[in-house]
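This section describes the prediction task in plain terms. A model, or a person checking by hand, is given the sequence of a single protein chain and must write out its three-dimensional structure as a string of tokens. No templates, partner chains or ligands are provided. The sample shown here is typical of the held-out split.
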Amino acid sequence: MSKNIVWIIFVLLIFPVKYPYAQNGKILYVGGEGEGNYTKIQDAINDAKDGYVIYVYPGYYNESLHINKSLTIIGANKQDTIIDGCGAYSAVYFLADKINFSGFTIKNSSVAIYLQSNGNNIYENIIENCDKALLMENADNNTIR
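The expected answer:
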């Protein structure tokens, strides 16, 4: 094996791709400006199909999310992209397998993230003012960082 291939494999293992491309090339946007942008994250989730990427611009989103599709949901940055559960039992509820979720502050719910699915990647999030950060039920092979 050449040194270049070994080096590439090493770099990919140490620095994995942070935001995968949409499997079908479709990206939905929440917040921000422009035609076609959603105002609510849940509306984008409802309209998305498996494999879509949902990019969420900085803002304050007062909603409880129910993710029932294999999606990549990316917040612009975890300090300024805030999901406020507004006292709901769970602010983010994972019902589908293979969800990538990162870049948010999640706050004001009993459970910030409720996992009831498998093979998810949850990383680079902040959790504030929730009784429990994470609740897992019948959930296997999830990566949480």
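For orientation: Residues 10 and 63 are 40 Å apart (CA to CA).
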